[in-house]
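Need tokens for this chain, all 58 residues.
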Amino acid sequence: MTGLRNPCRQIDYFQDGLLKQVAGCDEAGSIVRKVGIMSVVAQCSVVRPGDVIKVEFP
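Here are the structure tokens for all 58 residues:
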């Protein structure tokens, strides 16, 4: 993982409507975003729910 980020409208390039799934509003009308992460891919593969992800600290 190289950093944290807030989801932005670029996520809709991956799948239309995805930003609405990861952002919303609280009772006061303020935008609430679920955080995303950026990372470096060491090996091309498919990651599925339940797969183990290995974290190595630098």
